[in-house]
Amino acid sequence: MTRKIFIRFFIASLTLITLQSRVFANIFTGDDPQKVKYVFLFVGDGMGQAQVNLAQAYLAAIEDHVGFEQLSFTRFPHVGFASTYAYNQLITCSAAAGTALATGHKTSNGRISMDPEGSLPYESIATKAKKDGYKVGIVTNVSIDHATPAVFYAHQPGRDMYFEIGLDLARSDFDFFAGGGFLIPDGGSIESGAVNVIDYAIRNGFNVVNTREGFENLSTAAGKTLVISPRTASEASMPFSIDMAPTDITLADYTAKAISLLDNEKGFFLMVEGGKIDWACHGNDAATAIHEVIAFDKAVEHAVSFYLKHPEETLIVVTADHETSGLALGNNTTRYNSYLALLKYQKSSAVELNNAISRSGVNKSGDPEADFAKMMKIVETDIGLNSTPHNTLLSEEETASLKKVFMEGVYGTGDEENEYRNYEAFINAAVRMLAEKAGISWGSSAHTFVNVPVYSLGQGAEKFSGNIDNTDIPKIIGELMQIK
Amino acid sequence: MTRKIFIRFFIASLTLITLQSRVFANIFTGDDPQKVKYVFLFVGDGMGQAQVNLAQAYLAAIEDHVGFEQLSFTRFPHVGFASTYAYNQLITCSAAAGTALATGHKTSNGRISMDPEGSLPYESIATKAKKDGYKVGIVTNVSIDHATPAVFYAHQPGRDMYFEIGLDLARSDFDFFAGGGFLIPDGGSIESGAVNVIDYAIRNGFNVVNTREGFENLSTAAGKTLVISPRTASEASMPFSIDMAPTDITLADYTAKAISLLDNEKGFFLMVEGGKIDWACHGNDAATAIHEVIAFDKAVEHAVSFYLKHPEETLIVVTADHETSGLALGNNTTRYNSYLALLKYQKSSAVELNNAISRSGVNKSGDPEADFAKMMKIVETDIGLNSTPHNTLLSEEETASLKKVFMEGVYGTGDEENEYRNYEAFINAAVRMLAEKAGISWGSSAHTFVNVPVYSLGQGAEKFSGNIDNTDIPKIIGELMQIK
């Protein structure tokens, strides 16, 4: 052996010893290096690549630079694309996509962890994890009986069977639930004489809290816990992030609490849904969608902090169930220009603006011209349109198009089904107009079938990279958790 | 040492020996295991995730199943997302994005491998590879002086300086160029008395071929080679794939030829652009865009075949410069349904349909109603709209909207700037209507700033995974090729 070859051999041996150390350590201790103890699955409902990039570009734009700011999960080392199509339809609903993410099975739109015919249940990764000794938490900012949380604990042929889904929750042995409220808490008779789903959950051993104080004082001593948001907005969901008061509990608060309660020697599985990204996108409400993505990211940050303490045993997967509303990061009005910073002038969600308008009642003077003028003032102060300082003055044509929306339809026709329908249509049109001026557009107000991004960090994270299907996600998680 | 521990140690040693063998082999031979010898960079111009998924879902739909067919590159093991924003603008043009992909520098829209001010040149990975002894090939199906190919060999402050870009090509020492033609082959005086760019290239040692026979007989003996397409369509590009005759040379043919000519002991760098995905998307022409993605994929297949012969030394990166036209895989008409198989009834691109109409001249009878009826027949036979067997009968409203497009504008006004302008607008509207019936939509006819997918295979491919910027791509390629 010449000296040169010997030195090469020596250096190679050193390298290999370093590589070997961990394998050997595990061989001698009998531990399996692959087993993941702490698993986070974050589901940004409706969060396609475009929604993520819009939030990134917005954060840069309000700091007056061109490009993207990173979110916690866009820094993750591994990414993949997941196809989302349902069993018999390219465009999935949240129930079918959720069933895929929770159980690894494609199903028909509308099913909650049941087969395409709605007759056989599919077991979720959360249920399997629980059986295997992991603690399990399910967190959302929409109602706790909504499709995405439901697929992890319930089995129902229809996503609208909220009462039955609520019963499934109350019967579950999961350790932590947190969300808005219940859409149909009492819809039929409940065994054991419970008056509603929440009462039934209490009778089944759940510690139920619905105050900020109760939430803050939660400890592991309480046993299995169900947190209902002290303040809810439409459809038993928590308020949009853009509409939140400083005292409101956030998705990030829920996530931090879930981590502190679930943390135990045997590990946990925690699913966190950012459910209102989807809702904002269905409403084509760009500013609101951006704030939802940012709020979702703040929840992910807590998981990242946990990961940093347990990097060898933690896995974080951030993905979406589908993209909502065909968000395009450009349009034919602004062409190659973008003015995303304009979106910061929108003060609340379109939904909340509409609620405020119908609550106040002051806008119904009986004089359509005067009411329209009042509404244009709201558009200026609360949406930032038609404002000289913001450089968003509307053309005569644009004002006319908003006026047309306001004046047409139910206004003055005596149709009382929803006397503020034209106000809603008007606000929605104004919000879409702001998006157009900002340089983006919406192809739909329904879901689309474009692949969604998958971001992963931690033990086994590389297995979620590449082109995968949404059904692969729980399968890989199950393998990594070594669930039978 | 107990028997059990000994067995574990023995198994671990065997595993490690396997792992070591390659490292040792390289240590003893002195080869660097990291150096990549054969590099393919495929750029699907305008090919966002949505364009890829549309092609995948279309291929499944015409086989009558719901879901995606795989393309060669959607099977690649590694994927990433690349941000595409330009130096001072979120929405990039192909010149700035190309400069990023070729040189690793952000620049202003319009620059061809020059700094944002257009004063300093940036060296491309292709030029560096050539200096380092690699052979270099540049292939496109648009004109060879177009932005994406140009950024690899030229330096000009404006992408429209086609004549100057052509001169840069003629002066280059790259080994292989193939594309459509030149947009401005003679635009000024050329040194050495050459009559045009092509003549100049010949004087500079290029073997120029522009026939199918010449192309097929090309061999390495010819030295540096420039292939001009025997048949070109608009703007010196090769015909759209959907419009090709069996005798036409395809992007895949070019790629196969490039591989055979560039293959040599010192390795090569080959860039292949699918340039007309972008063009089809600018025209919101979905069927044509799908066929372009498929044609691009067939070019990639040749690289995959080469990789299979040299898996240890080959790298293939497939990406895009930007997304074009905000393609949304859903719309408000079809909502949660998709009817992609309808797109198979479109027989040629909108551009070619328009060319055929203006060439034939027969449609200008002077009777607008009669001409409109003739056009509706073309819509039925060549686009598949308003057809009973295809279940695409138009409503009265839809027919009226097409008629409005046809009748309005220049028809009968005597404006002779483009006497077929209304025919073009009409065909474009019909093609968009087909897309709407198929269940997709377009947010724009310009580019958007959504991240583009990056698919990679082979040696070092994992380095392109995760969230990257388009400027990272040539930097990583340069590192892997160990270019100084």
Summarize the structure in words.
- Two copies of one chain form a homodimer.
- Chain A folds into three domains: 32 residues; 322 residues, 3-Layer(aba) Sandwich (Alkaline Phosphatase, subunit A), CATH 3.40.720.10; 98 residues, no CATH class.
- Chain A is built from 16 helices and 14 strands.
- In chain A, the strands form three sheets. Chain A has a ten-stranded mixed β-sheet, sandwiched between helices.
- In chain A, helix 8 links the parallel strand 5 and strand 6.
- At the A-B interface, helix 1, helix 2, strand 2, strand 10 and strand 11 of A face helix 1, helix 2, strand 2, strand 10 and strand 11 of B.
Structural key phrases:
homodimer, 484 residues, alpha/beta, Alkaline Phosphatase, subunit A, 3 domains, ten-stranded mixed β-sheet, two-stranded antiparallel sheet, 14 strands, 40% helix, 13% strand, globular
Q: Secondary-structure map with pairings?
A:
The structure is a homodimer of 484-residue chains.
Chain A: H1 3-29, E1 38-44, H2 49-61, E2 78-83, H3 94-103, H4 125-131, E3 135-140, H5 147-153, H6 162-171, E4 176-179, H7 197-203, E5 207-209, H8 212-216, E6 225-228, H9 251-262, E7 268-274, H10 276-282, H11 286-309, E8 314-319, E9 323-324, E10 327-328, H12 350-360, H13 368-383, H14 396-407, H15 421-438, E11 441-442, E12 447-448, E13 452-458, E14 466-469, H16 472-480
Parallel strand pairs in A: 1-7, 1-8, 2-14, 3-4, 3-7, 4-6, 5-6
Antiparallel strand pairs in A: 2-13, 8-13, 9-12, 10-11
